[in-house]
Write a structure and sequence with these properties.
With 210 residues, this protein is α/β, with parallel strands linked by helices. The protein has a single domain, classed as P-loop containing nucleotide triphosphate hydrolases (Rossmann fold, 3-Layer(aba) Sandwich), CATH 3.40.50. The chain contains ten helices and five strands, in the order E-H-E-H-H-H-H-H-E-H-E-H-H-E-H. The protein is globular, with a radius of gyration of 16 Å.
């Protein structure tokens, strides 16, 4: 069973994906993390995240185990990853990495922005997790503050809006809802409520005949 979970930044898709994977005993891949690792590798090379040659080189040689996850989840790497992810050469280089993970025996859970549309268009179950930009900015501000990073709400909201526009407007695999994805709006849900709703969707969809 392949479960594809897409959605914009800070919608809750990563937490939902991890919890769903644990609930159903499936491996999980946060595909945003591999873009963050690619961005970190580009920066380590002394190159700009906008450099398509450096981005593709870093993506092809990616070894995510070399990076500290906490550092990858910083606001700086989030912004750099959004820039790197808009480069078609980078996305092309990482497609096989993601599809190989998805095709493991028994299936997998992948979350990102183009899983149900570009990476695993034939996924058994697709969720599109969303929330209002203000809700997402509030969540991201709390997350950053918990790590000791600057978290002024208006600045975080502006960053969220900028990333939404970049992710949705890029030429290669933009962030869009797959036609057969089920929308889960988490605006009014806490973590446990969102996870419970997602698990119910998966269970109901997996119980339906093909």
């Amino acid at each position: 069973m392949i479960i594809a979970i897409d959605g914009p930044a800070a919608s809750g898709k990563g937490t939902i994906a991890r919890r769903i994977a644990a609930h159903f005993g499936l491996p999980h891949l946060d595909t945003g993390l591999i873009y963050r690792a690619t961005a970190a590798a580009v920066v380590a090379m002394g190159k700009s995240p906008t450099d398509p040659v450096a981005g593709a080189q870093a993506a092809r040689a990616l070894d995510i185990s070399r990076f500290d996850e906490a550092e990858l989840r910083s606001a700086q790497m989030g912004e750099a990853a959004s820039i790197v992810a808009a480069i078609p050469e980078v996305r092309a280089a990482l497609v096989d990495y993601q599809r190989t993970f998805a095709r493991q025996k028994g299936g997998a859970v992948l979350d990102g922005r183009d899983i149900g549309t570009a990476i695993c268009p034939d996924a058994d179950i697709k969720l599109f997790v969303t929330a209002t930009s203000h809700t997402r900015a509030g969540r991201r501000a709390k997350e950053l503050a918990s790590r000791g990073e600057a978290a002024e709400f208006d600045s975080v909201l502006a960053d969220i809006s900028k990333r939404d526009a970049r992710d949705s407007g890029r030429a290669s695999a933009p962030l869009i809802q797959a036609d057969d994805a089920i929308v889960l709006d988490t605006t009014q849900l806490d973590v446990d409520g969102a996870v419970a709703a997602a698990i119910q969707i998966v269970e109901e969809r997996s119980a339906q005949p093909d």
